[in-house]
């Protein structure tokens, strides 16, 4: 706005009675921050190539477990006929964006609006897909029973990973213990220690920065995470921070922090395209639209779990 004026003095601003003093738009857009997304880092895409040109479902063949029997001399062998049900990966979800700009607005603007908006649309698409992933009940229903709850541990039943109305309270003094416990749950299912991941809320990652892990040697990093912002690997997990994890109010705000192995969850995108339509038949507009048709599924239930926690 212009400088204040004395009562009775004419207003020469653009919005006033005259247009002698022009108003200008800033040539810079306000900085916009986005939620960090990590689905490509924690999910495999092993079956994506199989559905590119073949419809909305792919059948994943699994390896059955062979029974090992005790042998004695002269024993007549009993042969198994191995069979195991296939897993079905449905490509049944879709997200899109579409926006248009009038040719006059585009011409008169000093900003590359279509480029700015399409970049924002791409980020918003990733955030929407990942938020839906973490809030999908099928993800929690698909995990192994002993990788969640107050009696977790396939062999020991000795780890409290939190349960409804009884979340575990994570602090800077016990966060390492909980990470180790989650890793041990995977160990009891013989899950490989390579390619393990842990996705935690921001407040939880802040506790790591306050814990003994601020010593870079404990994270395997060359410099302290307090200096470079990267947590690195802790207790064989690659740690990711996220604001898209599913939270709810259970007396207090609680979050499902997730952990697992990259082989446990699969994600496949059948259609992922962005189209630029420079000419409209019904108006003088330029249009942009994007579509993503995708699906995901737990394929190794024993390979991932959840820590139901509160601050």
Give a brief rundown of this model.
With 311 residues, this protein is an alpha+beta fold. Helices cover 20% and strands 26% of the residues.
Walk me through this protein's architecture.
The chain has one domain. The chain is flat, with a radius of gyration of 27 Å. Helices cover 20% and strands 26% of the residues. It is of the alpha+beta class and 311 residues long. It has helices at 39-42, 103-108, 113-134, 137-141, 175-187, 202-210, 225-228, and strands at 57-60, 87-90, 93-102, 168-169, 196-201, 233-234, 237-242, 247-250, 252-261, 265-277, 285-298, 304-310. The chain has seven helices and twelve strands. Residues 16-21 and 224-230 have low confidence and may be disordered.
Strand content: 25-35%
- How many domains, in number, for the residues? 1
Structural class: alpha+beta
Uncertain stretches: 16-21, 224-230
Would you list the SSEs in sequence order as H and E?
A: HEEEHHHEHEHHEEEEEEE
Helical fraction: 10-25%
Rg, nearest Å: 27 Å
How many beta-strand runs?
A: 12
Overall average pLDDT: 80
N-to-C terminal Cα separation, in Å? 45 Å
Give the number of helices: 7
Main beta sheet strand tally, sense and closure: 7 strands, mixed
Q: What is the general shape?
A: flat
């Amino acid at each position: 706005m212009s400088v204040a004026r004395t009562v009775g003095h004419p207003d020469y601003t653009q919005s006033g009675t005259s247009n002698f003093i022009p108003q200008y738009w800033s040539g810079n857009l306000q900085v916009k921050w986005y939620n960090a997304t990590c689905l490509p880092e924690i999910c495999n895409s092993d079956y994506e190539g199989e559905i590119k040109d073949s419809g909305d479902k792919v059948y994943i063949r699994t390896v059955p477990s062979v029974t090992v029997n005790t042998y004695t001399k002269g024993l007549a062998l009993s042969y198994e006929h191995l069979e195991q049900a296939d897993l079905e990966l449905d490509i049944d979800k879709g997200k899109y964006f579409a926006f248009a700009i009038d040719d006059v607005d585009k011409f008169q603007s000093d900003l590359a609006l279509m480029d700015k908006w399409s970049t924002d649309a791409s980020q918003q698409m990733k955030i929407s897909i990942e938020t839906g992933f973490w809030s999908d009940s099928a993800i929690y229903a698909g995990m192994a029973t002993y990788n969640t709850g107050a009696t977790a541990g396939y062999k020991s039943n000795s780890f409290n990973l939190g349960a409804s109305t009884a979340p575990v309270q994570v602090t800077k003094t016990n966060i390492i213990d909980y990470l180790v416990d989650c890793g041990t749950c995977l160990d009891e299912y013989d899950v490989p220690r390579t390619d393990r991941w842990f996705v935690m809320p921001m407040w939880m990652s802040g506790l790591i920065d306050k814990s003994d892990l601020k010593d870079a040697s404990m994270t395997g990093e060359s410099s302290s995470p307090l200096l470079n912002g990267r947590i690195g690997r802790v207790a064989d997990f690659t740690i990711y921070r996220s604001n898209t994890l599913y939270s709810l109010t259970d007396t207090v705000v609680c979050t499902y922090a997730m952990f697992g192995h990259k082989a446990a969850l699969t994600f496949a995108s059948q259609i992922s395209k962005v189209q630029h339509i420079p000419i409209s038949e019904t108006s003088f507009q330029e249009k942009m639209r994007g579509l993503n048709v995708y699906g995901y599924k737990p394929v190794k239930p024993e390979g991932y779990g959840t820590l139901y926690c509160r601050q």
